[in-house]
Amino acid sequence: MNLILIAVISLGAIALISAAILFVASKKFAVYEDPRIAKVGEVLPQANCGGCGYPGCSAFADACVKAETLEGKYCPVGGQSVMGQVASILGMDAEASDPMVAVVRCNGSCEHRPRLNTYDGPMSCAIAASLYGGETGCSYGCLGCGDCVEACQFDAIHMNPETGLPEVDEDKCTACNACVKACPKSIIELRAKGKKSRRVYVSCVNKDKGALTRKACDVGCIGCSKCVKACPYEAITVTSNLAYIDYNKCKSCRKCVEVCPQSTIIEVNFPPRKPKQEAVETAPVAEA
Amino acid sequence: MLKTFSIGGVHPQENKLSAHQPIVAADVPAKAIILLGQHIGAPAKPIVAKGDMVKVGTKIADANGFVSAAIHSSVSGKIAKIDSVIDASGYAKPAIFIDVEGDEWEESIDRDTTLIKECSLSSEEIVKKIADAGIVGLGGACFPTQVKLCPPPSFTAECLIINAVECEPYLTADHQLMLERAEEIMVGVSILMKAIKVNKAFIGIENNKPDAIELMTKVASTYAGISVVPLKVKYPQGGEKQLIDAIIARQVPSGALPIATGAVVQNVGTAFAVYEAVQKNKPLLERVITVTGKSLQKPSNFMARIGTPMSQLIDACGGLPEDTGKIIGGGPMMGKALVNTDVPTAKGSSGILIMNKKEAKRGEERNCIRCSKCVSVCPMGLEPFLLGALAENKDFERMEKERIMDCIECGSCQFTCPAYRPLLDYCRLGKSKVGAMIRARQAK
C-alpha cells in the first residue's frame, strides 16, 4: 500500500515539474507564426506544382502574407477564385489576370509531315533532341516522345496516337508551366485562354526559310507575312521566317486565319464558319 | 607485354572488311555542297558570292575567330548559292553549293607526286601554312590543327604523339593510308615536330595492323626521333587521353587540357594533310573515307573530295543493300546515324558504315542488374549506371558532381551493358544539360 502511494506521489511530482518546465519553455521560446499563413495555405490547391514560381504551396502562402501587395503573385491552378479568397484573407486586392492555357505550337502530324527516318533510342524528347533533328525534315517540330505528358501533374496533356502530337485538355490544364519547361524544342507556350476560350495562334515554331519548311511540312509557317498585312491590330510579327501572334493585342478577328496559305494559323472554339466561303464553293456546283 | 591504357576499355569485333582495299580516287561530284561548319568552333565566313568562279583549292571561306578553320573549294566551277542544307544531324546548316565545271586546279598547288623531304620553314611559318590550308584534326573531332600546335604559354610540349590506332571497328582509312603513303606521313610528322619544337615523336598503332607497324617502323628508322609504338588492341585507345596514357603513361587531370601532360596528339591523317599543305601547297580538300558494311557489295576506301554526297560513295560500292537498317557516319562505336544519304562529306567524315537490319536493332531495354560491367569498362573511371539513373531522374546537379563532363562518349558502357540500357544516350543528355548549366553560371 505504502509502496503504491510513494510511486503515485513521486510520479505525480515529476509530471507536475515537467509540465511546468514545458509551459515556461513554450512561452519563452515561442516562435510567432502569422496565423494567416495557415489560412492562406488552406485555400490553396496544395498541388505543389511550382507554377506560381515558389517551391510549393506553403512557400507561396508565406510569400503572399509577407508581401505588401499581391502584384505578380498568381496561383495558376486555383486561378482567379482562389486568388480572390487569398486577397480577402489578407485584406488586399487580387491582381486581375487572364486565365492562361498551354498551347502546342506544332501541327506536324503524320499526315502533314512525312517521317523520313525512325528513331529507336530511349523514349525521351530530351534525349532525342540531344542526338539529332528528329524523324522528319523539320528540326523544330514535335519529337513525339511525350516528355510533356510525363511532366503534367494534372493529366491535362496526352499524345494523340493518330497525329503523333500532344493535345491539351483545356479544362484540366492549370497553366502551371511544367510542360513548357519539359519541351526541349520550346513548342509549348502559355497563352491567354481568351474570351469564351476562343483564341487564334500560329501553330508552328519553324525558323527555317520558306522553301525548306515547305519541303518538310505541309502546314509549316513559311514567313510570307501575309498575316502581318491582314492584321488590323498590329498583333502579328514575323521574325526569322516565323509569324507570332501577340495574344495581348489579338482581338480574335480571324482575318489572319483566312489569308494563311499554309493553314498554319489555327482558331479554336469558334462556332463553325457559315457565310461566304461555303456559299462560294457550293454555288458553281449548283450552277453546273 | 604490349602497351595500352590503364583503366577500362572493351574489345568489339573488328570487322575490318575493307582492309587492304587500295585507296581509289572517288569521282568528282556534279554538285558539291561544302558545309561552313566542318570543325569545332565558329563556322567559317564565306568570302565568295553567288556566280563567282572557283578553282580546286580556292579559299571560299575564312576562319571566323581563333578556334575556327578556313575552307577551300574541293572542285572547280561556279558558286550556285550560299544557303542552308540539312546536314547529317537533321538540322539545317549553312553551306556553299558549287556547280562543277571541269577540274581546274589552282596553279600554286604542286600536283606532282615526288616526295619532298626538306622543309626549311620556321615553326611560325609552318603553323601559318597549316592554318591557311584549313587543316583540322582528321580523327573525327575536327579541332583546328593550328590551335593545337600553339599551346597556351604556361605549357610546353615535350613530345608529339601520332594517333594511328584506328580503334573503331570497320574503319580502315588510316590503315590503308599508312600502307600507301608511309614516307609522306613521316615527313608530315617531322614537320609537326618542328612546328611544336620537340625532338621526340611516337606513332601509336594497334597490333591488329602488323603490316602497317612493320612498314612504318622501317620508314621511321630513317627519320630522327620518330619511333613506332605497337599497342594492344583495345577500344577506345584512339581517344586522346587514352592514347597519351598508353604511350607515355601519363594521365590527363580531370578538366585539364591534354597538353598538361606535355604531349600533343595528332591523327595520322592530319600528318598526311600537313605534308601536303606544307610541301605541296595543297589545302585540305579531300580525305580518305572508308565505306563499309556486312551487306555492302564492295567495301572500299576512297580518296573523296570534301562535299561529295554520301550517296555517290555508297553507289560506287554497289549501292545501298536491301536489308539496310542504319547508315552511320563514322565508326559503329562513336559514329552517328545519318538522317539521309544526300548529306555531303565533311573534313571529319572518316567512314560510312551501312548496318543491316539485324545489326542495327537495339536490344530491348531492361532494368539495371547492378553487374557493374559498365564501371569496369569506362576508360574515364566513371560510373555509367549511376549517371544513367541520375539522367533519368533529371538530377543534373548530382551528375556534375559525378564528373559527367569527363565522359568522352566512347560508348563502351552501352556496348557492354547486358540489360541494353541506353547509358550513352543518358550520358550525352547529361553532358549537354550540365554543359548548359556551367555556361549559365559562368555568364552570371
TrEMBL record, chain A:
Q: Where is this region: Hydrophobic?
A: 1-26
Give the co-factor note: Binds 3 [4Fe-4S] clusters.
Q: Where does [4Fe-4S] cluster 2 bind?
A: 138, 142, 145, 148, 183
The cofactor required is: [4Fe-4S] cluster
Binding of [4Fe-4S] cluster 3 occurs at 152, 173, 176, 179
| The 4Fe-4S ferredoxin-type domain, residue ranges | 142-162, 164-193, 210-241, 243-270
Q: Locate the residues binding [4Fe-4S] cluster 1.
A: 49, 52, 57, 75
- What role does it play? Part of a membrane-bound complex that couples electron transfer with translocation of ions across the membrane.
Entry protein name:
Ion-translocating oxidoreductase complex subunit B
- Organism (species): Bacteroides graminisolvens DSM 19988 = JCM 15093
Automatic annotation (TrEMBL), chain B:
What are the EC numbers? Answer: 7.-.-.-
Q: Which Pfam families match?
A: Complex1_51K (PF01512), Fer4_7 (PF12838), RnfC_N (PF13375), SLBB (PF10531)
Molecular function GO labels: 4 iron, 4 sulfur cluster binding; electron transfer activity; metal ion binding
Q: What's its membrane topology?
A: Peripheral membrane protein
Q: Where does [4Fe-4S] cluster 1 bind?
A: 368, 371, 374, 417
List the Gene3D superfamilies: 3.30.70.20, NADH-ubiquinone oxidoreductase 51kDa subunit
Alphabetical list of InterPro entries matching this protein: 4Fe4S_Fe-S-bd, 4Fe4S_Fe_S_CS, Ion_transpt_RnfC/RsxC, Nuo51_FMN-bd, Nuo51_FMN-bd_sf, RnfC_N, Soluble_ligand-bd
Q: Which UniProt keywords apply?
A: 4Fe-4S, Cell membrane, Electron transport, Iron, Iron-sulfur, Membrane, Metal-binding, Repeat, Translocase, Transport
Q: Its GO biological process terms? A: electron transport chain
Q: What is its main location?
A: membrane
Q: Which PANTHER family match?
A: ION-TRANSLOCATING OXIDOREDUCTASE COMPLEX SUBUNIT C
Similarity field: Belongs to the 4Fe4S bacterial-type ferredoxin family. RnfC subfamily.
Q: What is this protein's record name? A: Ion-translocating oxidoreductase complex subunit C
Q: Which organism is it from?
A: Bacteroides graminisolvens
Q: Which gene encodes it?
A: rnfC
